[in-house]
Structure prediction request, 201 residues.
Amino acid sequence: MKRAFIITIGLLFTLSTFAQTGYKVGDMARGFELKNIDSEMFSLRQFKSAKGYVIIFTCNHCRYAKAYEDRIIAIDQKYKKLGYPVVAVNPNDSTIEPDDSYSKMIERATEKGFTFPYLLDADQSVFKRFGATKTPHVFVMSRGDEGLKIEYIGTIDDNYADASEVKVKYLENALDALLAGEKPDPNFTKAIGCSIKYKKD
Prediction:
């Protein structure tokens, strides 16, 4: 009986630890430096006047990611001027999904005319730190005296398949709230997309 109790407690602790992996809304985040499609290293500090950042984990091949590309470009064009630029990060291992290779990233960004940095998370450490699970997966951070704070996590809107049928623009609503000095509501939604491709340890 005692052994079964110990095993149960251990299992619950393991599940709890797993569930808490990655940033949560309200957490303070660390910056990062990753290779951009121009072959230069990029860090968030390069947006010197930014009020915050829209970090979107995305990729080349996923149908969900492709469906959102034009909307992501439009969001970047609108909100970059207001202090919240988009920074896209490809978290996928290209040995598992060859269409997400660095060379394919350059091709895709050129083809679509990306207006934002498109970075390669080569060692997959950044997406794991954030706790991203899908492409696309959004993390909005504000920048203040204390550092970078996670303000919103989740999806872009409520209809990936058809932009004309979108009823709730979760990401834009979150950004509008922050710009108005308010907190996003909701500040968390379920990310909808393809699973991130990574090598198992």
About this structure: Helices lie at 2-19, 63-79, 102-112, 125-130, 170-179.
